């Protein structure tokens, strides 16, 4: 069983080593000046120093307040208008708030009815407080701050104080989260709920099944907001199964597996209960269901876009009802795309990793009103300023991933087995599934907290070696 567990170690070492290689290649391709490495290194030195020596009381509270304040300032300064799917969902939320459920007849919601969960969440806020975009964005800041706090607490429980402070600080200063804070995406609240669920899971040593029940509720609500709960559940299930074969825990064999069973039951009851409620109240006709399950695979195997969103593929959905004919057409297209030679398929997989993990974040969602508009800020063209920010982010990101690989290698050499492995399982499943489905730089949002836990582990090992 230990050898089987090592598969996850090796996979993640190889995966993040590939990410480093692809990121470096991208920086050379974009001719990014080496000078950006200086502020990146300075930031990492500060984070290391605070992580090792910042033994102040209530660190988690100060971290929470820092993130809340800095993200709130960001959303006030950046007047981001909703575009694309985000506009469609906020418009549907406004309709829901006044009792109009007509949005369910929109082709978008007929195909992806599961998006109705986030619509209802936004609609309830509008119903209670009125429609104020700034309020919605400030609530985003609250979810990001809470997520940061949970990451700190989870890492502290799984590893130690140094790793926890490092993970929390890395998450707090990660530039893309500043850029996404004013975007009305379901990723903010769903990510918070998934990490809340994980927090309850790592607290499961307390007597009884209370924390498992709370984890099931949190994961189910996260799935209502953004349907990737199956990955978290599968990872927790793997963790429980491996635990059954752990020699360290033979004296209470299967306790964690029973806890997982309880979590799974609660998850199913809560999620499908809400789905049924949506049907009964007329919000949707099919509940929180994906009525076009092949679409993500259609796009994911598109060689021309390297698995990114395809405007060409979208044309097949235009004025096309979600019926068996469309599903058959999508299946045929998937089979065709799977029939390419193995060398091209391998290159597609590598390119998909680069598209999601090695390239710039998508500023179009944050600055649709500013990019390409010949706007000046601080005496410079805004597009140039934006590119400079992305270049700095990529240098910082490269150093962070370097810490991840360092920690993974040391952990593998030492062969430690612990609760910490649950991070490996979630990351392996999440990165693995994206070899098959559509990718986007912003899709890594939900697991970046786990990535920073691994980076925090790298800082922990550096501190351990330098303090000998």
Protein described:
Residues 122-268 form the Glycosyltransferase RgtA/B/C/D-like domain. The protein is mainly α. The chain has one domain (2-466). Helices cover 69% and strands 1% of the residues. The protein is built from 20 helices and two strands. It has helices at 2-29, 37-53, 59-77, 84-97, 107-111, 116-129, 133-158, 161-173, 175-180, 187-202, 210-225, 229-244, 255-280, 295-300, 311-314, 324-338, 342-358, 382-414, 421-433, 448-466, and strands at residues 376-377, 380-381. A two-stranded antiparallel ribbon has the order 1-2. Helix 4 packs across helix 6 (116-129).
Largest beta-sheet details: 2 strands, antiparallel
Whole-number count of domains: 1
| Number of DSSP helical runs | 20
Mean pLDDT: 92
What is the number of strand segments?
2
Binned, the helix content reads 55-70%
Share of residues in strands = under 5%
Strand order of the largest sheet: 1-2
Rg, alpha carbons: 22 Å
Helix and strand string, N-terminal first?
HHHHHHHHHHHHHHHHHEEHHH
From the N-terminal CA to the C-terminal CA, the straight-line distance is 33 Å
Given the C-alpha coordinates, what overall shape results? globular
Task: Give start-end ranges of low-pLDDT stretches.
Answer: none
Provide the structure class. mainly alpha
Subcellular location: Cell membrane
InterPro entries: LipidA_mod_glycosyltrf_83, RgtA/B/C-like
Keywords: Cell membrane, Glycosyltransferase, Membrane, Transferase, Transmembrane, Transmembrane helix
Protein name: Glycosyltransferase family 39 protein
């Amino acid at each position: 069983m230990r050898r089987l567990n090592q598969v996850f170690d090796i996979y993640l070492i190889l995966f993040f080593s590939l990410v480093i290689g692809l990121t470096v290649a991208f920086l050379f391709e974009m001719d990014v000046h080496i000078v950006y490495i200086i502020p990146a290194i300075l930031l990492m030195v500060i984070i290391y120093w605070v992580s090792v020596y910042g033994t102040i009381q209530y660190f988690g509270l100060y971290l929470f307040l820092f993130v809340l304040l800095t993200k709130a300032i960001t959303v006030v300064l950046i007047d981001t208008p909703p575009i694309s799917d985000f506009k469609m969902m906020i418009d549907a939320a406004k309709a829901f708030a006044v009792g109009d459920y007509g949005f369910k007849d929109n082709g978008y919601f007929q195909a992806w009815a599961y998006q109705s969960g986030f619509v209802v969440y936004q609609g309830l806020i509008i119903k209670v407080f009125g429609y104020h975009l700034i309020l919605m964005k400030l609530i985003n800041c609250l979810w990001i701050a809470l997520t940061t706090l949970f990451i700190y607490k989870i890492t502290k429980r799984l590893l130690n104080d140094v790793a926890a402070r490092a993970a929390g600080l890395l998450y707090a200063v990660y530039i893309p989260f500043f850029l996404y804070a004013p975007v009305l995406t379901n990723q903010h609240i769903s990510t918070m709920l998934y990490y809340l669920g994980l927090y309850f899971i790592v607290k499961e040593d307390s007597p009884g099944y209370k924390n498992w029940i709370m984890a099931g509720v949190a994961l189910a609500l996260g799935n209502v907001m953004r349907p990737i709960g199956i990955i978290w559940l599968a990872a927790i299930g793997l963790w429980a199964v491996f635990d059954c074969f752990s020699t360290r825990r033979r004296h209470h064999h299967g306790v964690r597996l029973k806890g997982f069973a309880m979590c799974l039951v609660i998850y199913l009851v809560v999620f499908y209960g809400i789905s049924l409620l949506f049907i009964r109240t007329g919000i949707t006709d099919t509940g929180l269901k994906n009525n076009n399950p092949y679409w993500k695979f259609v796009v994911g195997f598109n060689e021309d876009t390297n698995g990114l969103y395809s405007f060409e593929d979208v044309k097949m959905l235009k004025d096309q009802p979600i019926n068996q004919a469309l599903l058959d057409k999508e299946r045929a297209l998937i089979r065709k795309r799977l029939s390419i030679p193995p060398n091209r398929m391998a290159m597609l997989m590598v390119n998909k990793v680069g598209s999601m993990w090695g390239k710039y974040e998508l500023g179009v969602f944050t600055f649709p009103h500013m990019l390409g508009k010949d706007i000046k800020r601080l005496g410079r063209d805004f597009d140039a300023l934006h590119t400079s920010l992305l270049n700095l982010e990529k240098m910082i990101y490269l150093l962070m991933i370097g810490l991840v690989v360092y920690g993974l290698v040391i952990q593998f050499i030492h062969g430690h087995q612990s609760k910490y492995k649950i991070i490996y399982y979630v990351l392996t499943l999440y990165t693995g599934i994206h070899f098959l489905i559509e990718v986007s730089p912003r899709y890594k949002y939900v697991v970046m907290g786990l990535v920073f836990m691994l980076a925090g582990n790298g800082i922990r090992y550096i501190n351990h070696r330098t303090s000998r």
